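Lecture notes, structural biology module. Today: joint structure prediction for complexes of two components.
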Amino acid sequence: MTLELKTVRHIARLAHLKLTPEEDRLYLEQLGQILSHVETLQSLKTKNVPPTTHPGGLSAPQRPDTAHSTGPSQNLLENAPLREGQLFKVPKVL
Amino acid sequence: MTDIGNLARHSAREIAEKVRRRELSALEVARFFLERIQRLDPRVKAFLRVFPKEAEGAAKKIDEKVSRGEPVGRLAGVPVAIKDNILVEGTETTCASKILEGFVAPYDASVVQKLKQEDAILIGKTNLDEFAMGSSTENSAYFPTRNPWDLRRVPGGSSGGSAAAVACRMAPLALGSDTGGSIRQPAALCGVVGLKPTYGAVSRYGLIAFASSLDQIGPLANDVADLALLFRVIGGHDPKDSTSLAGAPADEELTRLKPQISGLRIGLPREYFTTDLDREVAQAVERAAKNMEKLGARLSQVSLPHTRYAVSTYYLIAPSEASANLARFDGIRYGPSLLKNGKDTASLSLETLYEENRGRGFGPEVKRRIMLGTYALSSGYYQAYYGQAQKARTLIRQDFEAVFQNVDLLLTPTAPTAAFLFGEKTSNPLQMYLSDALTIPANLAGLCGLSLPCGKTGAGAPIGLQLLGPPLQELRLLQAAFAYQESFSWEPCPLS
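The predicted structure, tokenised, for the full assembly:
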């Protein structure tokens, strides 16, 4: 499996990761190795095999849909890098 | 009165019992373990944070309860170390990542609430591979943890801090999390016992998610009965976790565990005993199998034919889920951020902010897995990678379902080798991934599994065996492990 540098850069953009040129080259090599290893899965015949999205198939119990208080939002806001009053402050989006 | 110097050899059960009977005060216990941490941890570096004030405060409250004659919990006065991807309200939780530096948990994880209800003492937060991604604790953004048996070697990972803390008795009990072996593998490398409960058996509310279809919180301890007790405390249904199962395995049989292995059918999967296995590890596990046979277990060879696809399956599914789960770390609501550096928000685009914060905040292994997962989920590759891995996962699960028609438990080595040296596998990520080959299948299939010591290498490094059971058969697993443990003499870690 050979990856191209432009694919690595495209993936980094999709993942919202700013990578250095050294990181680009490192991941080009390492992701290539890992993807070659996982190629073994292509030899499996899976045409009629259903996918497993989570283990078990045991059903989750139900509960009444009741409202609860989640407590004060103050300690959530205290972790904010930047805020204005009770709001998170972010760069202009639109 | 109890000889306080001897406390390191006490089980959690003994400590709780003595606190209850006023033979020991919870404050004495807390101070004993805090002193031990102060003395040993500069060498081992298992803890990211220790809570001396809070621990002593909680201990005093328990002593007051006891002296007023009020009932106390099952873990009265027992110090418990918590892996730093589990939230403890009002304390910093970082997942050993720079991207969460300074993040103060706004609430308690459900397992932490349960520990508090049972009067346990939260003594500190333990080191891990960043976001639980790794098998050696070398991926911590802060410092690596050392194996207390041999400080030149890794403790395993990702719950390396928890396993090391328990091994040299800086805490009698610890919590870890296991996504592909992160409780069992460090337990094996540090010579302690560790349980990965069935998927859904322990609430994950307040566990910072890595791979949601695989993650499970579980206990680490020095003996199987302590392990069962801690599992009993943290297990059971939690309405705050939608993957939490009804039919809680929490019952009195776990609290008063009895050894039981006679008559059990135990399978030895031939795919787990390949030439990749270290010779000393193979010999120790084979000796353990013979011991179990002497104790009345019925052994047989079995086959799990899709085992060789497990690592590839895991390293597509776990990074895919991680790439989605870790999208939330962007420096907007918490964590270090360009926003904090007084940057004018008007001059920043949201995209640049995300990319800069994440590029600086995540370490190399986390970035590698986010990249891998993003690739596996990206348009044009989804079916070939993620889709195919989900189907392979079905085949791996079906292997176990078939084999558990004929056997009650499976016996395997926990890890292909004993503890390796620092730096031995860091330059080749794939080599590191392969050290999880024997623990990953249980996560893919949602089974319960545990690791317990079964011998040492010639160089004195602990070797662990793994027992695997069908979903929700923790009791069977723990009873068998208990019977084996009683037949086997084990010298604890000499570091003091």
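Point to remember: Chain B touches chain A through 82 residues (CB under 8 Å).
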